[in-house]
Structure formats: structure tokens, C-alpha cells
Fold:
Amino acid sequence: MTSLTTGRPPVAVRAAAGLWIAAVALGAGETVIVVGSSQAGGNVLAGVLFRGAVYAAAILTTLRMRAGRRWARLALALVLGIVGTLSLVVEPISWLADGNSLSAATAGADLTWWAVAAARALHVAAVWAAVPLMFTARANAYFKPQG
Structure:
């Protein structure tokens, strides 16, 4: 049964919700930067539509989590906290594993590269901060089933 809590969510839950919204905003910002630059490749429209759907689902799920829905907390932690993080870090990790050098990449980096790197790093940091906040003692009590 999902929680039917009433009243204001604990600080940790409100902070986690803010961090999830920030992560979405940073992801959307990264999308705008990439699409607006020459770095966008392949089917840009399909990529933007997919990301838009993920961001909309993330916002709706965040609002449900803030309202005390246990399923939303688990969905955010498992789907976006784990799978979403992997989708953000697999490309740079693979690139480095292929023998590329971070110092070489930063030496030739332009403003777009730095903006995307900063947005992605802050996006991941927001997710990594949000997930544990949703599982603090007070958050756990807030998400307990009623009755």
C-alpha cells in the first residue's frame, strides 16, 4: 500500500525533490547546449523527444515522491538513480577506457565542451545527493504505509 501521508514532507524529502528537479533542469540544459551546437548528431528530434519524455516522467514521479508515494521513491532511486546515472557516465568512462586522455580532451575543449561537462557533473551530483536523502530516517517514516 502506498503512503497516504498528510502534512508537509520532511526536510530531507523536500530537499531530495528539489535536487531531482535541479537534475532535470541540468539535463534539459545539457540537451539545449548540445542541440544548439554542432555536437548534435544522428536523429536530433528523436533524441530530444526521448529526453523530453524522460524529463516529464521524472518531474511527475518527483512530485509523487514528494507527496509520499513509496513507488515513486523506489522508481527514482532505481530507474534514475542507477540506470540514469549509468547512462550519463558510460560514455565518458568508455572514452577513457579506450585510452583517451582527460588532459588531451580539456586542452582542446571549447566553451560548449565545458558547459556540457559542467551540466553533466552537476546533474550526476544532484542525483547522488537526492537518492540518500530519500532514505533518511525521517524520510523512511514519511513513506511508511498507513494503518
Notes: The two ends are 10 Å apart (CA to CA). The CA atoms of residues 80 and 127 lie 8 Å apart. Helices lie at 11-36, 44-66, 70-97, 102-107, 111-133, 137-142. The chain is about 75% helix and 0% strand.
